[in-house]
Amino acid sequence: MDAAGAALSATLPPTRQAAKPAGVDAPYGQLIEVEPGVARVLAPNPSPYTFTGTQVHLVGRSELAVIDPGPADPAHLDALVAAIGGRPVAAILVTHTHKDHSPGAGPLAELTGAPVIGCAPLVVDGEQEAGFDRDYAPDRVPADGESVMVDRRTLTAIHTPGHTSNHLCFADEAAGILFSGDHVMGWSTSVVIPPDGDMAAYVASLIRLRERPHDRVYYPAHGEPVADPQRLVRGMINHRLQRERQLLRLLGEDGATSLPALTARAYPGLDPRLIPAAEATALAHLIALEQQGKVVRSGNRWQTNA
Fold this sequence. Notes:
By secondary structure, this protein is α+β, with helices and mostly antiparallel strands. It has six helices and 14 strands. Helix 4 crosses helix 6 (275-291).
């Protein structure tokens, strides 16, 4: 999630505005049908970054695909096995390798015999974000547009880099459903953490989703379903462009400044726990602006390229 998720509140219905997970009362471990052939199980991993936890989606009736199995928590895996209820699992699909999404894939594959089909393992030169699952090992990495058949449903991989370089969404084109992982969430915007996270790629992937008008609903990994996805995606693109303009304005006012100082100006009154995420997202914007030739950096200071 993006530390500045609340700033998007003008484009989010009130029930999906960002909120702290303190005192969460959520249906952990319960199988909840969201529409015919699509159900979800909520993992018990709430946090300021995951909202109430990771939504694991089960697609199909007599045969299943499990999308983003979540953490390798024994109680959570027991709940998933109970939700599967002895039905064959054709595939375990993974959108990306953050630790709240992919670690359960290997243990669930051992329990069900299903192949893990999903994003590529992440290889980053230099320092790697601590939130990545380094043990993830898929059986197959689908190409962009490649499909998996499950219970007479076709789930198509849509490459959406940005939040992470290996992020995928999965689309049930016939049903008008997009399983959006963390690229588009039902409660806040997504954090983009360099060096793997790429703001320019993230916005380009949002634009790609905006050009899919036949998607009637998104089922994200965090938060409630998105019933008007095109409106939300347009709002998210505008939010990112507004953030760029804000950073350029602040740099114009302040002159050369450090990332922490700029972040404090751009995100006033931020929960201290979210400052690292805010700094990372601001840095991702600055790198994108640098690539456009609009800002320059010298050491640890940034300024407009006047």
